[in-house]
Amino acid sequence: MKFLVILLSFLFVDNGCSASKINQDAISIEYMARSRRTFKHISINKKNISIVNKSGDTPSTKPCSEADWKNILKVLKPIDVENIPNLNAPSENRFFDGAAIANLKIIYEGKTYESQSFDHGNPPKEIAQLVKEILSISENIE
User: Fold this and answer.
1) CATH for 14
2) Nearest Cα to 97, choosing from 124, 68, 119?
3) Stated pTM of the model
4) Per residue in 42-93, pLDDT tens?
């Protein structure tokens, strides 16, 4: 496990040489928010951004720009991916339909790091910038 953290940390070193040492094609990030009236599933990897806004719909897929991918990697850099399952949600509005239920997954070479559920629009502070960037990118391509 520590090897994976070290490996991922090399990915996020700011110089271009270190980023090329790991397989960026093996990184995928998924964000999902759902409630009675809301459904959003966003999947981002180095090549594509896929968005589904209604359960059962066909995903809308667009190429992921190099700038968007660099922004994702930049906000992913300070996150301890192994700790994502242990993050606590700052609010509990999802328990009474006050917010959609959201979660985040980071997948690297077949290993999945998934957050506990949190309120859509109010993620744990440790992943807040990443969630904000994912939502921003998805809104700009629709």
Assistant:
1) 3.30.1560
2) 119
3) 0.81
4) 999 999 999 999 888 888 999 999 999 999 999 998 999 999 999 999 888 8
DSSP state of 87: P
Q: How far apart are CA 101 and CA 34, in angstroms?
A: 5
What's the domain count of the chain? 1
The whole domain housing 44 covers: 2-141
DSSP assignment of 25-74 equals GGEEEEEEEE-SS-EEEEEEESSEEEEE-STTPPPEEEEPPHHHHHHHHH
Amino acid identity, residue 112?
A: T
In terms of Cβ atoms closer than 10 Å to its own Cβ (0-12, 13-18, 19+), residue 54 is exposed
In whole angstroms, give the CA distance from residue 76 to residue 62. 21
Residue whose entry in the numeric block shows the structure tokens 């904000």: 132
| 41 in Cβ contact with 52 (< 8 Å) | yes
Distance of CA 108 to the CA centre of its chain: 12
Nearby residues of 37 by Cβ (< 8 Å), 6 or more positions away: none
